[in-house]
Every structure is written in C-alpha cells, then in structure tokens.
C-alpha cells in the first residue's frame, strides 16, 4: 500500500507561523503534525510514502531525510493550487501497477487504529459527526455506504463530515474518477474537489463505505491547534524536575530545555533547547531554541528561535484599586 499525504498548501490561517514553516511541520508534544500522523500508521504494510508538496517544499525534503521509519519516501510537486483532486492526480505517475492507496490530509490528526486496513475488502472514507456541516465536505449514506457527497452545503440533513482520510482498494479506479473531473472541468468553489471525484466514483457503481471515527482533531487555525495539542500533551506528558520551578501537568518539555524560577503548565509544549526564566506559561506552544524571560503567557504560540523578554514590574496598589490587563483566558 502507498500512503499519499497532500501537503502543498500555504496554511494562511496559521500565519505568521507559516511564513517560515509549512503548517504540517509545526511541532507540538515533541513531534510535527506529520510525525503524529505517521505514528498512527505504524504497523501497516506500507511500500511507499508520497508527499504532495509545493509551498516551502525544501523543508519537507530536509526534515525527513529520504525515508520514514525505513520506508521509501518520495515527493510530487503541485506547482499551482488547483484543489485536492488535482493534487491527488499528480501522484498517478508513482503507481506503475494498481495497488491500494491511503490518502491522509496533512493537517488531519486522528486517533484510530488502521490495523484492519489490509484485511478490508472495500474502499472507505472516514467521517465524523459535526455540529456545523456547512464547514465541511458532507456525505449522505444508505446504511454504511456513500450515496452522495456535497462540499460545504448551506443546508444539510446529514452531519457526517469527511475528515480527510480515504482508503481505496484500487488506486487506478480513483484516478479514473479524478480524470473525469479534470477532463470535464468540474469545479466547486473554483477548484477541483475530491468530493466531486468521489461523487462520480459512487455514481458509476463503485462501492465506498463510511468508517466513523470519534477522535479527530482540526489544526486549521491557532485556536484549533492549541485545543488539539491538549490531547497530545495528555498522551505524551513528560518532563524532568527543575530547581526553583513548578511544573503543572500535563506538559511536554524536551529534556534539553532550561527552565529557571518559572511556573509552566498545564498544556504547554516546550521544544528543544528553549530557555524559560522567571515566567508563567500555560496553554501554549513554545518552539525550539526560543528565549522567554519575565513574562506571563497564556494561549500563545512562539516559533523557533523567537525571543520574548519582558520587564519585571514593581507596583504600589492602594486599597480598593484594580488593574486589569488585556489577554485571552
């Protein structure tokens, strides 16, 4: 089986962090988003990983050094952002023979066992029940099988959202459906959508089952990212003891980090070689080689090699006085 991971987007909703790093390589709880995805796929019989890259493509090449856990890794470039269906069609050249294919979007984090994939006799798409179907591609079903797919419907009787995980017993059958969409210039919201290709797939008699997953995490913007990292920090809670500092679990603090006279946690990721002094930090992601001193941080993201140095305050506050500083809780 080949695993295809589209990762060509610019991640504009996570700027300024994505000005210098692709969204799938943003790290928390000790790993990048892509590494968290790959960890969930361990144990599968994978012949090759294929990354579809574009924006800051060199960083993907350098980050993974040619392989993933000893498995072959290759790259395909999407030079123009024309939609997910277009991106998937670009990997056709990597399939010299028909075989099964797993597509996982690079900002789709999940906690689901795929141990039975190789034994699965049918193609499937993973879905999750959502409160607001208008934000997602939505599937309609008859029993467990897909009958229709609509991209971000204004009104919907179904609340089963596609979560960005697709499995096909035959890659060639999917390519035929994508090819139909491309050749007939079928677009939704100006792009070639995978939902349109899958609609053609099921309308021409192909079976597409639904697989419901409960634990699915969106990393589309900073608030969603900070919420998602809470789950992973609970899983990978780790830290050592620091003199004159208090660590409030759960946290992920790399063993190379330096922490002095500070309170860190809960729900804080601290990456490699970061220095924190005289600070209070909670619900935040701190990148590698950052420097933080004399600050109170909450619901914040600091990138690699960033520096935030505050000034200790001395205040005389009289009776019945009040100072309220801005910020997010």
TrEMBL record:
Origin superkingdom: Bacteria
Recorded GO MF terms: transferase activity
Swiss-Prot/TrEMBL keywords: Transferase
Keyword Membrane included in the entry's annotation: no
CDD domains: NTP_transferase
Pfam short name (any one): NTP_transferase
Domain Nucleotidyl transferase positions: 2-232
Protein name: Nucleotidyltransferase
Species for this entry: candidate division TA06 bacterium
């Amino acid at each position: 089986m080949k695993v295809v991971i589209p990762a060509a987007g610019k991640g504009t909703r996570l700027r300024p962090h994505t000005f210098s790093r692709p969204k799938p390589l943003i790290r928390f709880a000790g790993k990048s988003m892509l590494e968290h995805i790959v960890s969930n796929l361990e144990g599968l019989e994978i012949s090759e990983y294929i990354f579809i890259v574009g924006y800051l493509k060199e960083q993907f090449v350098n980050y993974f050094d040619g392989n993933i856990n000893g498995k072959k890794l290759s790259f395909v470039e999407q030079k123009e952002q024309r939609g997910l269906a277009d991106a998937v069609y670009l990997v056709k050249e990597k399939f010299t023979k028909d075989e099964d294919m797993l597509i996982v979007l690079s900002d789709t984090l999940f906690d689901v066992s795929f141990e039975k994939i190789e034994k699965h006799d049918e193609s499937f798409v993973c879905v999750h029940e959502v409160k607001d179907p208008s934000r997602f591609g939505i599937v309609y079903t008859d029993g467990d099988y897909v009958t229709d797919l609509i991209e971000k419907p204004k009104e919907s009787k179904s609340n089963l959202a596609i979560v960005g995980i697709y499995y096909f017993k035959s890659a060639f059958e999917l390519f035929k459906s994508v090819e139909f969409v491309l050749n007939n210039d079928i677009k939704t919201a100006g792009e070639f959508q995978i939902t349109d290709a899958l609609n053609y797939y099921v309308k021409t008699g192909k079976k597409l089952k639904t697989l419901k997953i409960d634990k699915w995490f969106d990393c589309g913007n900073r608030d969603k990212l900070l919420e998602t990292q809470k789950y992973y920090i609970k899983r990978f809670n780790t830290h050592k003891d620091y003199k004159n500092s208090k660590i409030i679990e759960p946290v992920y603090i790399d063993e190379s980090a330096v922490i002095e006279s500070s309170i860190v946690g809960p729900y804080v990721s601290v990456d490699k070689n970061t220095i924190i002094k005289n600070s209070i930090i909670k619900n935040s992601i701190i990148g590698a080689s950052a420097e933080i001193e004399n600050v109170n941080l909450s619901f914040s993201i600091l990138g690699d090699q960033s520096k935030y140095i505050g000034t200790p305050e001395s205040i005389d506050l009289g009776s019945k006085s009040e100072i309220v500083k801005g910020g997010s809780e």
